[in-house]
Write the structure tokens for this entry.
Amino acid sequence: MAFVNEHYLKLSAGYLFPEIARRVNAFIAECPQFAGEIIRCGIGDVTEPLPLAAVEAMKSATDELAHRASFKGYGPGTGYDDVRHTIAEGDFRSRGIDVADDEIFLSDGSKGDCSSIMELFSHSNRIAITDPVYPAYVDGNVMFGNTGAPLEGGGYEGLVYLPCTAANGFIAEIPSTPVDIVYLCSPSNPTGAVMPRAQLEAWVAYARKHHAIIFYDAAYEAYIQDPTLPRSIFEIEGARDCAVEFRSFSKSGGFTGVRCGYTVLPKSLCASTAGGAQIPLHPLWTRRWNTRSNGVSYAVQRGAQALYSTEGKRQVAELVAHYLGNAKLLREGCTQRGLTAWGGTNAPYVWVRVPAPFDSWGYFEHILREARVVVTPGAGFGRCGEGFIRISAFNSRANVEEVVRRLACIN
Ligand code: MLT
């Protein structure tokens, strides 16, 4: 007899974004006359074409595969050396941050990385996550059996929730209960809040003092325009001993469909055995990749690498400026309509307080029906997300202007 992993049975019925798609499809089935009018600002999925530098590099890499002399079979599981070099140089060393080429591990995106990293850790860790939070962190840990049962009203037993509210500027505060692993996301998905340097320093100091590890999701770092805000946790002294960073080309290079991201795992990062020995994690993560994967496809790695060329950087900056321009319009549109909104200045998400008498799923339905606009209900990101919606700035300018017009017209 085959036995199922019963931890999967603890998961809520559907992952957030398929659940939203299901509700949108139900609305379309009920009111098919509105199908063509729907504008999707729910999932943060890019809409603009890929940077030309990446397209040309991927075409030329595919051509290489078409000829015997330049053909490539399996690549290294952790990424081609020169691609890792370009990333370490472009994102870190050129900014004065100490990251070695072989501390970069390429993957098909950070959604998978932020769960699969848990393979290196025991089930006994006390894991802290922010509330609201990107749901993939939680669901991944549920699947691994790192949580208890679902709690009434949302969340899971066994996780330590760090409330992020308007009162603390949506920035996670250091917990009073000791924790071993902390997920932090900056700029935050979903609130758009960015961790200020002083608070990130405090988190690093906490992690070092308690021998904890921070999983730092920097998938949206390209959106940080304020030079005083940290773009990488490795800007903070001591972080190499207590942090892993997740990066993605999805929202910078428009790679949500292409798929490429990476983790930075410093060679100095260790975790403890039950007997107290300090074990470096870098060899284990390398071992994990070489066992489980043959790496990211050659053409995609070349596409990602091209984002660091002079042209590539210019095109990425243009893309980011486009989405940030959308975010500004959305935030201003909400404010002019009398709603209270956060985020959207160093992040592509606008976090909006839901007006009375709605709750967040209720306001999602209201906006869908009255404005034919899809947003994400904050409650889908955790209990502290109740009372909010998230509006994604990933769209065309024309659609965003139309969203602002429509939101102004509904009750
Ligand atoms: C989101 O909308 O939260 C993100 O696009 C989801 C993701 O990056 O997986």
